[in-house]
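Appendix B, Record 12. Input sequence as logged:
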Amino acid sequence: LSPLRPPLTGRTSPSEPAADSRPSRPSADARPPQARRRLQPAAMRGVAARRPWTSVGPARVFHSIEALMADAPAPRTVVMLHGVRFAPNVGATLRAMHLLGGDSAICIGGVAAGEPQRGDGGVPQALREALRISMVERHGWPLRIAALPHEREALQILRHCRDHGLRPICIETDVAGVRSPAAALDEADLVCGGDSAPSGAGGSGAGSGGGGVLFVFGAEDQGVPPELAEECEDFVTIPTIGKGSLNVSHAVALVLYERARQLRAAARSSGEGSCV
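Logged structural output:
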């Protein structure tokens, strides 16, 4: 017969400490932040660390249309630049937009399409140059810009803006073939317009209290793509005495000045006819 085994006490030898007295391994939550960070895959760390916008001086550059539309106060006078590639033109446009009442810009392709350098927060160098030219930092202007690199997503972006109560208006010199005749800028309604309410949350409809608008501009050499123009509810031209196209910053300045003039006139008016 084998000798009786002594009762188990949790020790394997007199010199070994009891099991319940051994130091326990710290939990993952108790580890220092550096150790917890190493537990996350690199891709997940990048997603978690990226905010919906990047600060460039006092300006904020949004990385999605959803983030811009969810920002407060809700955008109501928005300039869309499709395929505008030259930083000086975009910089002058941003300056005119802020001074003449625009509250947000959407850059699709063009200056938004370049690869950002490491440490640039996802903002392409061409757009950073445009912001420098706009003098936003010198004046402390709180500009909001959505930088969206893929032109193929333009239709989806326009529809998302429309769902949030912005009436898309195409600004183009030649709108041959579109479903609606273009109105001259001085005869166009840039305040009241449509009567559809947004399907998205928040904000007022395009035809109620505020008349949110999305002005769609194209590059000077190519203009607004036909498929994008066809999605717009209204078409506006800027009468000129000769054939050619204005610099996009000049066109933006003229359109925003006319909208500001109409808003002031509507504010002075009273009764059912007022849109503001």
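The beta strands are 53-56, 59-62, 77-82, 104-108, 144-148, 167-171, 183-184, 213-218, 234-237.
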